[in-house]
Design brief:
311 residues, mainly beta, Immunoglobulin-like, 2 domains, 14-stranded mixed β-sheet, globular
């Protein structure tokens, strides 16, 4: 910022403060900005479309998210013909409501249009597609080191994929462990429901330098720009707790082959969140492919592979 502009802004701010101290208060007529609609609409083949709609909030607001329940949400084909209208769903065991038509699932390599009508807002549009899936070649573990004083242990997880040649691909690789239904701990037998638990990644090593750690810190986003058609190898370092995982947990790698819009949205969102506590960092504008709104409507396709830890 130009230093003279900075000083002008600073002086103006001080003047405002001084004016506020006068006997005659000054009222500023500042027009409030109406909230915009935020669309969360990532989708994948073999799973129904689920679209979440909410209103955006001020940056420092602690208010609860306001979800939109009175929208007309339609999925159209590439030519604009209606395929299905989604209905509002608010399941008891799900924290975030969504619009869905059960049984209606997208297909890979097909383009879909999203049309949303909400009273008081202009029509909202978006277009997205899901690419074909690229499989994980292998996932393995090594260098398992146990802490004799605690239930913690460190390990390295190796994953590799073979990138298809002569095509632009975008990826999102995530790591989980399978939480077993019952396990023995120092306090006895504990029962837990089966579920996928994110594995926190402490460090990533790869010949690919386009890596961006995702916002959940259990995966990475990357492209094949530097190594198109090559085998891509990744090594992740992590620390797990045996009291949570059991002695022989299953390590799962999920490789999402993602659209370019998906990649641009989540990498920019990650960079913005990383900069939130850095006042002098370059501002990051989150990618948006929603016309007359904010958010994302984009597809992905996924493949999973797994390995059991033996200690």
């Amino acid at each position: 910022m130009n230093k003279y502009l900075f000083y002008s802004i600073f002086s103006y701010s001080i003047a405002l403060l001084l004016c506020m101290a006068c006997e005659e208060p000054i009222s500023l007529d500042i027009e409030s900005i109406a909230p915009q609609v935020v669309v969360n609409g990532t989708f994948t083949p073999n799973h129904p479309f689920q679209i979440t709609l909410s209103k955006n909030k001020a940056l420092l607001s602690n208010d609860a998210t306001e979800f939109i329940t009175n929208a007309s949400v339609k999925i159209l084909d590439e030519q604009g013909d209606l395929l299905k209208e989604l209905s509002y769903q608010e399941p008891e065991n799900v924290a975030v409501p969504y619009y869905e038509f059960a049984g209606f699932q997208p297909q890979a390599q097909k383009t879909y249009q999203l049309a949303i009508e909400i009273p008081g807002y202009p029509m909202i549009y978006a277009t997205g597609s899901a690419p074909n899936s690229v499989p994980i070649q292998s996932i393995q573990t090594e260098e398992i080191i146990t802490d004799s004083n605690t239930s913690l242990y460190s390990l390295k997880i190796n994953a590799s994929i073979l990138d298809p040649i002569e095509e632009q691909n975008y990826y999102h690789l995530q790591l989980y462990y399978q939480q077993i239904a019952s396990r023995s701990t120092s306090n006895g037998l504990v029962n837990k429901p089966d579920s996928f638990i994110p594995i926190p990644i402490r460090n990533t090593t790869s010949q690919n330098t386009t890596i961006v750690t995702d916002i959940n810190k259990n995966g990475i986003l990357f492209t094949d720009d530097q190594l198109n058609g090559a085998q891509l190898n990744f090594q992740f370092q992590t620390v797990l707790d045996r009291d949570l995982t059991g002695d022989n947990p299953e390590i799962i790698g999920e490789l999402r082959t993602i659209s370019k819009d998906y990649y641009l949205y989540y990498t920019s969102l990650t960079r913005q969140l990383e900069n939130k506590d850095r006042p002098f960092a370059e501002p990051v504008i989150v990618f948006n492919n929603i016309e007359n709104g904010l958010g994302i409507f984009a597809g992905f396709n996924h493949h999973r592979d797994s390995v059991f830890i033996t200690q």
